[in-house]
Amino acid sequence: MPELPDVEVFKEYLDATSLHQRIEVAHVLYEDLLRDVSASTVRRRLKGSELASSRRHGKHLFAEIGDDGWLRLHFGMTGELEYYEDGERPDHAALVLDFPDDNHLAFLNTRRFGEIGLVDDVDAFVEERGLGPDALSDGFDRDDFREALSGRSGTVKSALMNQSRMAGIGNVYADEALFHAGIHPKASPKDLGEETIGELYRTARRVMRRAIEARVEQFPDDFLIPRREEGAECPVCGGEIEKIEVSGRPTYFCGEHQSR
Predict the structure, then answer these.
(1) What pLDDT, on a 0 to 100 scale, did the predictor assign at position 56?
(2) pLDDT per residue over 132-174, tens digit each?
(3) Quick one: pLDDT at residue 152?
(4) What is the β-pairing status of strands 115-119 and 70-74?
(5) Per-residue pLDDT tens for 189-212?
(6) Which residues 6+ apart lie within 8 Å of 177 measured at CB?
(7) I need a labelling partner for 44 at 20 to 30 A (CA). Which of 17, 27, 174, 249 fits?
(8) How many CB atoms sit inside 10 A of residue 186's CB?
(9) CA distance 259 to 256
């Protein structure tokens, strides 16, 4: 599932390809992805407008529709953006925006777990959805991170993925952050000392920034992501990658430097 780094890359892609172009037609192909809005309303409000700017909060991407609110995209498990010129419409296009000169932006959603919506106010939407602060925002400091983990029962991995406490970290980047911080995914947040929490905060943010810099494709050599396979060799210490289940999610970690 696309997580914070993936959606940040999508945001940068949208900014580079699609801002400030007049939308001639908006095609809604997968109406089952619409949330609290009709296809006719999406088509009407997008037609003739421009995407003036964009914002990201956690795993949600927002594109400003001139003075008429925001287009909201949630990528689900398989969502992505594709800007194309001429040619055939790409497979699994859920929403397509037609620009002048036969240019297009497509929101693809192969497994149809994504969401398309319109919101008048991004901050109000975040509050209504009960989303916590964005995990990579400048305003989310170490004290906020400590508060997000404090008093949490269960595992530290589950706490990192709790979108109501901090938005954006999912299964893959929770594993990656814990891997680099040397913390077992089943450790209890209540057992983490102040120094360990501070290290995890710095590590989680550093991991996400490095993934964004890598365009979530060519990951650094010390990343776990390319080695999410039981029995793979740990790129940090040479130990063996193990697979367990945490909160119903497949979880990968190093049995050596992340031992309990």
Answers:
(1) 98
(2) 999 999 999 999 999 999 877 899 999 999 999 999 999 999 9
(3) 77
(4) antiparallel
(5) 999 999 999 999 999 999 999 999
(6) 160, 169, 200, 203, 204, 207
(7) 17
(8) 19
(9) 6
Q: How many residues does the chain have?
A: 260
The two tokens of residue 68 are: 């008429």
pLDDT over 90 at 82, yes or no: yes
Which residue carries 């964009």 as its tokens?
54
